[in-house]
């Protein structure tokens, strides 16, 4: 499992990357089969004026699926927090769907065995 954090269009300091890394590692609790995590931190001028908008893109590879979240805020740490929180909910939802499918298959197989006798 690899975690890569890259910054585009701004000077990313080591503290910010360490903060993002710490937050991203907490996502590993919510799904056991994560194979790859990519985080892109972006900065763009706002269409409203001279202010900066900061974006955090998180892409997680799990078997059979690629989960992607993009969030923006006025401060980079807030963008990271929002994106991590949304990804957490997405991972939980994805894992619940997987478990639900496995249980449905198990119940169906039990019914088949009962009627084959």
TrEMBL record:
It comes from the Bacteria. SUPFAM superfamilies: Ribosome binding protein Y (YfiA homologue). InterPro entries: RHF-like, RHF/RaiA. This is Ribosomal subunit interface protein. It comes from Candidatus Curtissbacteria bacterium RIFCSPHIGHO2_01_FULL_40_12. The lineage of its organism: Bacteria, Candidatus Curtissiibacteriota.
